[in-house]
């Protein structure tokens, strides 16, 4: 019998929302901004314009309309998921009896996407919105950059131009870190990365103490685990996620955002005498932007196309930004 090949599990780009036959046969529900926004129900807007301004990353465009239309429905959906996952854990504990007497474990959310797509703003907004629900006030956010190898190690391994690629991280330590939090350990610590010195900060640690929700944000959070030396599949970071969001946009738009952020950073953070990028304040803007363009084309874009974008199909929710940073379409995994 001749069978047709399985459909890709990646959410289709450019499909018309609600498109009948296709929508039925994919694991996603495709929604327009208006359709998604209507799902917010009665969730109140708990942030002021000032608070949103403080959470916004450099170059990101986000206002109260965007919070109300996009992030409040998401906060409502996640609140429902957290409740459902507690019920599931209860069912498992009932089944396991004495063996199942687990401590409460946090609900873990992964936020993935390219460099400069605005994942950190999404993650910070989610943290602020989710913490307003009385059922889960303790929401911690960690970024995976703390698990980048220190610059000395990247240099020794010839990985300075692969920063952000999966091999530039201590993936085992990152997975262990999330596994320990998920297991309900009282106190778990992580190294801290600084964009200013472009390196891990010696002696500094971030401490996470039994949150209700943990958000893990980073380029590669949806990457599957590498097989072990014995060829056996390992448990990877994404296996600990209860929900994941992929922030998507056209590579050409992200490049523009990356370059415009570089221009702004050159006028601000790079001026700091301890900034690794200070040298780009000493040359013309054109020269500095040529360098940024090379960084984008040879490192970040390659990483996006080879490693990051291929993980999009693993996310529970794909939010697609248009050229003005506003989310225009969403694909929510239903199966
Ligand atoms: N060279 C830099 N100096 C200072 N801050 C930076 C630098 N590069 C990125 N950032 C900041 O770090 C954060 C994370 O950036 P990035 O990893 O590109 O993810 P995203 O833009 O998706 O949030 C952003 O808030 C960004 O403004
Ligand atoms: C620190 C990053 C690797 C991203 O970190 P992460 O997503 O793991 O938190 C990235 O933001 C970065 O700085 N890349 C290096 C190339 C560049 O500066 O453009």
Supply the key terms:
Rossmann fold, binds adenosine-5'-diphosphate, globular, binds the ligand CC(C)(COP(=O)(O)O)[C@@H](O)C(=O)NCCC(=O)O, 335 residues, seven-stranded mixed beta sheet, 36% helix, alpha/beta
Write a brief caption for the model.
By secondary structure, the chain is of the alpha/beta class. The protein has helices spanning about 20-25, 35, 50-55, 65-95, 120-130, 150-155, 170-180, 250-265, 285-310, and strands at about 30, 105-115, 140-145, 190-195, 200-210, 215, 245-250, 315-320, 325-335.
Describe this structure as you would to a colleague:
One of its GO terms (molecular function) is pantothenate kinase activity. The protein is α/β, with parallel strands linked by helices. The protein has a single domain (23-94, 103-333), classed as P-loop containing nucleotide triphosphate hydrolases (Rossmann fold, 3-Layer(aba) Sandwich), CATH 3.40.50. Helix content is 36%, strand content 17%. It has helices at 20-25, 33-37, 49-55, 64-96, 119-130, 151-156, 171-182, 251-267, 285-308; strands at 28-32, 107-113, 139-143, 188-194, 199-208, 213-217, 243-248, 317-321, 327-333. Strand 8 and strand 9 form a beta hairpin. Helix 4 packs across helix 5 and helix 8 (251-267) crosses helix 9. The radius of gyration is 21 Å and the shape is globular. Mean pLDDT is 91; it is low at 1-10 and 12-19. The structure holds adenosine-5'-diphosphate and the ligand CC(C)(COP(=O)(O)O)[C@@H](O)C(=O)NCCC(=O)O. Residues 115, 143-145, 163-164, 218-219, 295, 299-300 line the site of ligand PAZ.
């Amino acid at each position: 019998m001749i069978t047709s090949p399985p459909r890709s599990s990646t959410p289709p780009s450019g499909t018309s929302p609600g498109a009948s036959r296709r929508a039925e046969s994919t694991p996603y529900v495709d929604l327009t901004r208006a359709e998604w926004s209507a799902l917010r129900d009665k969730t109140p807007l708990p942030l002021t314009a000032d608070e949103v301004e403080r959470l916004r990353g450099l170059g990101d465009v986000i206002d109260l309309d965007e919070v109300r239309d996009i992030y409040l429905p998401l906060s409502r959906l996640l609140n429902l998921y957290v409740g459902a996952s507690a019920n599931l854990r209860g069912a498992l504990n009932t089944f396991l009896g004495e063996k199942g007497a687990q401590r409460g474990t946090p609900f873990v959310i992964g936020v993935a996407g390219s460099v400069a797509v605005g994942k950190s703003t999404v993650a910070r907004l989610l943290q602020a919105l989710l913490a307003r629900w009385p059922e889960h006030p303790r929401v911690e956010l960690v970024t995976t950059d703390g698990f980048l190898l220190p610059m000395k190690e990247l240099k020794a391994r010839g990985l300075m131009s692969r920063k952000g690629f999966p091999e530039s991280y201590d993936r085992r330590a990152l997975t262990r870190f999330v596994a320990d939090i998920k297991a309900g350990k009282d106190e778990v610590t992580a190294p801290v990365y600084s964009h200013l010195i472009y390196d891990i900060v010696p002696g500094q640690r971030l401490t996470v103490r039994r949150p209700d929700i943990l958000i893990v944000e980073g380029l590669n959070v949806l990457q599957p685990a590498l097989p072990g030396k014995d060829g056996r599949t390992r448990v990877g970071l994404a296996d600990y996620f209860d929900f994941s969001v992929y922030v998507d946009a056209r590579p050409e738009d992200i490049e523009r955002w990356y370059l415009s952020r570089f221009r702004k950073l050159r006028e601000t953070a790079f001026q700091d005498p301890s900034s690794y990028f200070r040298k780009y304040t000493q040359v013309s803007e054109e020269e500095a932007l040529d360098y940024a363009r090379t960084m984008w084309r040879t490192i970040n874009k390659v990483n996006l196309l080879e490693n990051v974008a291929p993980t999009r199909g693993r996310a529970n929710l794909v939010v697609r930004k248009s050229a003005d940073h506003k989310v225009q379409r969403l694909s929510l995994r239903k199966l």
